[in-house]
Design goal:
Oligomer: single chain
Radius of gyration: 16 Å
Number of helices: 3
Structural class: alpha+beta
Strand content: 25-35%
Shape: elongated
Strand order of the largest sheet: 3-2-1-4
Helix content: 25-40%
């Protein structure tokens, strides 16, 4: 099976995107890195996250807005990565985003992008 993994850590420096093939189970698991890219986080987005983490600056509307802004940035970055590496939605079994030290959640690629669409996630 083939997966795209997304990781944005607490350093706020950017987004790591990896396209991997993973087969097998337990001790016989085989992982092959097929493509990788680091995307620098936009300065404005980083500053907004830092502001939201500040107890004097955090407002519910800012935090809610960041949910959509981060999702949009993740999606646009992933779409660009897929285009640069000629990866079609049909080539991906799941996309697994992780932000900071949270548990990853995997989504089948067809849940995120209909197979007949090429728009950003």
């Amino acid at each position: 099976m083939k997966y795209i993994g997304l990781m944005s850590g607490t350093s706020l420096d950017g987004l790591d995107i990896a396209y991997c093939s993973i087969d097998g189970f337990y001790t016989s698991t085989n992982v092959q890195l097929l493509a990788y890219k680091e995307v620098k986080m936009p300065k404005q987005l980083k500053e907004k996250i830092q502001f939201a983490c500040n107890k004097e600056g955090a407002h519910t509307d800012d935090i809610c807005s960041l949910n959509f802004e981060l999702g949009t940035w993740f999606g646009e970055s992933t779409k660009q990565f897929m285009d640069e590496n000629a990866i079609r939605c049909d080539d991906v079994d799941a996309i697994c985003p992780v932000n900071g030290n949270t548990t990853p959640s995997c989504h089948k690629s067809y849940d995120l992008v209909p197979r007949n669409r090429t728009a950003a996630f």
